[in-house]
Amino acid sequence: MAQMTMIQAITDALRTELKNDENVLVFGEDVGQNGGVFRATEGLQDEFGEERVFDTPLAESGIGGLSIGLGLQGYRPVPEIQFFGFVYEVMDSISGQMARMRYRSGGSHHSPITIRSPFGGGVHTPELHADSLEGLIAQQPGIKVVIPSSPYDAKGLLISAIRDNDPVLFLEHMKLYRSFRGEVPEEDYTIELGKAEVKREGTDVTLISYGAMVHASLKAAEELEEKGVSAEVVDLRTVSPLDVDTIIESVKKTNRVVVVQEAQRQAGIAANVISEIQERAILHLEAPVLRVTAPDTVYSFSAAEEVWLPNHQDIIEKVDQVINF
Amino acid sequence: MKHVLESVESQFEMFQILNEDGKIVNKDDMPDLSDDELKELMRRMVYTRVLDQRSIALNRQGRLGFYAPTAGQEASQLGSQFALEEEDFLLPGYRDVPQLIWQGLPLYQAFLFSRGHFHGNQMPEGVHAVSPQIIIGAQYVQTAGVALGIKKRGKKAVAVTYTGDGGTSQGDFYEGINFAGAYKAPALFFVQNNYFAISVPVEKQTNAKTLAQKAVAAGIEGVQVDGMDVLAVYAVTKAARERAINGEGPMLIETLTYRYGPHTMAGDDPTRYRTDDLDNEWEKKDPLVRFRKFLEEKDLWSEEDENKVIEEAKDEIKKAIKQADEYPKQKVTDFIGNMFEELPSHLQEQMEEYKEKESK
């Protein structure tokens, strides 16, 4: 099995689906000869031609509209929004249009679109590049939101997203692109959307997370183990819709929960997770469910982001609180 | 430094074939239409005028929902649609229901659309269209995509969309024409300039003298046409379609027109922003009056023909309303099932809740 970074796994998934299905089109700003600003589409235009892999003019709303229109002609568009902080420019195409296509048309049209976009903090970007805005789209019915935490998941989830006949937002945490390698099969495989994964088994507390915070949670779990606390780590992988079954199963096992997200606290995925837990498993809880999040400011000026971003120490502190409640 | 605005603007002149008296002023561009086709154009305009009058009445009786009146814009709407083929793909704005109907959407479905029933948006087999867009300009960027898809498929067809004068102020307007231009995609972008975006006059939308000239910035062809002259609109559309299919790229077509009625039937009062004088001035340009004169001169149209169409329209409208009344009521459980191809578990749970709620 090959060792790949997450960005290589993403390129591999795109190549796999460009090969598998001639209706797959990959496009966006700088994705052609340049191979994307993070090189996610490196070499794909040379391999598949400009008909399949191409640059767009620099306009996110236009890219969204282009995707919808190509979808109406039977294509399977995989557009890239260069940084997810630019999503405000394409909100109508995503939430107002493609997510509503199947509903609006009474099932006579659909939008088989996978929007790929980098996001996430810790890489010292300028403003509106790093924001965790998954909650914005998770609030919109009709579109799925997927956030992988590993190269293996990235490939399998991206292939599933592209094959899905409904729109999927596929968010790629920039910090994870090249920070480590993992085993990735060279053949094609899929990971079902809407399914969480227990990344680490534990018995005393459940850490529920996604994206880069899965790694902070795993690091916290290792340190907690040294202190004699057995932490289970659940990687949501799809943040909309939530895999409620996996969440509740883990809650019933550990009875204590900390939900970890990189996004600010207000109105986020963590709040959703906690609502599901209290509605479905309140009698299994030994302590309130706590959250580790960024503070409710606008995303940090990059000179302060190491403090602003949640880390494994923050997680350990919250775990202490739920254990000692 | 050379100033070019004035010289660019001066080149956009209104294209016309029939003047207000129904006389041909531009013989060279007269489209090649048979007598039957000319009569069919008139039939459709009369029919659509009746449909508008009946729709307004039905709305006032509480028997229709959302409705955007169309009277005054028949030449612009139907002249352009008449130049389309079945394989063309239509992306209408909310006032463009007539084009959908003549492209094949059954009348009872148009009424269901008005009533907020999803069956009104379910395009029948062979009708290549999406339902009317509500967000101003969103259809423009989607049209670029449909047109690029048509080009990639190698189809001999075009994507056709409509917006109004206000729509040209939206970013999506420019993004749409610019994307289509960059890809030389076969798209026809209509701007039905009826001079008012609800109440705001076109002079307050832009400093541009014409809306057609906005094509220049995107590097595509633009034309301004008399939107009260059905032959002019038809001729321009036909030529633009040919051009697009031959790989020569998209075109922006501004039709100068007027809506006699309010913006929609939801409380707009045009007397707050338009004068009677202006209304009267435009009624003199009326597309039906003008074309009727032209056809009568050629002995192709009579009062009898006109009355026949009116009766036919009224009869079909009555039947379509009955059909809409009899269509199964819209249920929440119908569209829960349309959120995704496969229902996720949270929606399965909610489906059960609403099945129970709707059974009570």
From TrEMBL, chain A:
What this protein is called in its record is Pyruvate dehydrogenase E1 component subunit beta
Alphabetized SMART domains for the sequence: Transket_pyr (SM00861)
Q: Print the keywords alphabetically.
A: Oxidoreductase, Pyruvate, Thiamine pyrophosphate
Query: What is the required cofactor set for this protein?
Result: thiamine diphosphate
Q: Does the keyword Oxidoreductase apply?
A: yes
InterPro entries from the entry? THDP-binding, Transketo_C/PFOR_II, Transketolase-like_Pyr-bd, Transketolase_C
Q: Which domain of life is it from?
A: Bacteria
Q: Which residues form the Transketolase-like pyrimidine-binding domain?
A: 4-179
Native organism is: Virgibacillus kapii
Tagged with keyword Phosphoprotein: no
Q: Which SUPFAM superfamilies match?
A: Thiamin diphosphate-binding fold (THDP-binding) (SSF52518), TK C-terminal domain-like (SSF52922)
Automatic annotation (TrEMBL), chain B:
Key words, A-Z: Coiled coil, Oxidoreductase, Pyruvate, Thiamine pyrophosphate
Gene Ontology MF term list: pyruvate dehydrogenase (acetyl-transferring) activity
Q: Where is the Dehydrogenase E1 component domain?
A: 42-332
Per the UniProt entry, what are the Gene Ontology biological process annotations, in alphabetical order?
branched-chain amino acid catabolic process
Concerning Gene3D superfamilies, the annotation shows: 3.40.50.970
What domain of life is recorded for the organism? Answer: Bacteria
Reaction(s) catalysed by this chain, per the record, are: N(6)-[(R)-lipoyl]-L-lysyl-[protein] + pyruvate + H(+) = N(6)-[(R)-S(8)-acetyldihydrolipoyl]-L-lysyl-[protein] + CO2
Q: Which Pfam families match?
A: E1_dh
Q: What EC number(s) would the UniProt record show?
A: 1.2.4.1
Where do the coiled-coil regions begin and end? 303-330
What InterPro entries does the record tag this protein with?
Alpha-ketoacid_DH_E1_comp, DH_E1, PdhA/BkdA, THDP-binding
Q: How is the quaternary structure described?
A: Heterodimer of an alpha and a beta chain.
**NCBIfam families, A to Z:** PDH_E1_alph_x
Query: What is the role of this chain?
Result: The pyruvate dehydrogenase complex catalyzes the overall conversion of pyruvate to acetyl-CoA and CO(2). It contains multiple copies of three enzymatic components: pyruvate dehydrogenase (E1), dihydrolipoamide acetyltransferase (E2) and lipoamide dehydrogenase (E3).
Q: What is this protein called?
A: Pyruvate dehydrogenase E1 component subunit alpha
Instruction: Specify the species.
Output: Virgibacillus massiliensis
Q: Which gene encodes it?
A: pdhA
